[in-house]
Amino acid sequence: MSGATWLVSYPRSGNTWVRFALMAALGGQEALGFEQLDKFARAALDRGNIDWLMEADSGYLTEDEAAELRAEYHRARFAGVSPSPIIKVHDMWQALPNGGSMHDPDFTHGAIYLIRDPRDVAVSWAAFMGRRIDWAVRFLANRDAYVGQRRDRSGPVMPEHLGSWSDHVVSWVDNAPYPVTVVRYEDMLADPAACLRRMLDVIGHRADAAAIDVAVAASRFDRLSTLEREHGFKDRPDSAERFFRAGRSQDWLTRLTPDQAGAIAAAHGAVMKRFGYLSNDEQVALGELADKL
Questions:
Q1: Which structural domain, as residue segments, surrounds residue 213?
Q2: How many domains does the chain contain in total?
Q3: The whole model's pTM is what?
Q4: Which of 1, 48, 88, 284 ranks highest by number of CB atoms within 10 Å?
């Protein structure tokens, strides 16, 4: 089956880390740097490339028209393409006014959804954006959230519609009209080799144990953090002290107040429980709290 393989995540859920691991596994190389990542599994968001290929000026388009233009760009780039290119995605899955989708089955080979505990996402997103955690908690609950300069139609990249954290997860896992393989950030930390094998199966690539071992070594968090410290990383915004900040799970336990953790659970409890981020006891306590309000 031809077309793109979408590597999808809400921001700060491990997309760059996983891309690095997949790049190492597919190339069988351990001594990789960030310059190679620039040519591998990038987001298809460059406004100049889109306008040039589609002979359009997206700066004059409405948001719906720009989204439809991106869908046609994806069709022109990925329909019938084999082997499947891996494309980074932060957009939620959604149908467009013309009935199509930016990530339509006609030019899709497969999809991998990277999910992370939203409490850890809030901590990491706040640090990345140089904002307070309360701001990040509200952002994750915003059903109209975007990344990119939504209203700056001359910006170098196209904006991406996230929706809320829960909306984002459900849009892909339940609403995309093709199978979506879900990989938890926490499982990638615990057993990266097994997760890599699952993702490579989606792509249609068979890697032997040696190649998997190379990929795991190449994408160790301490190695990526050292590379960033020694050489810099252009994807780190000025607002962030580091791109590769912590690389662990349950960081939220020491970073969120009870009110902040409770607000995230209140907004996203159903999806959190579904993917193992909220225990039955926590769900009951949350319900009792809601009854008192």
A1: 4-292
A2: 1
A3: 0.90
A4: 88
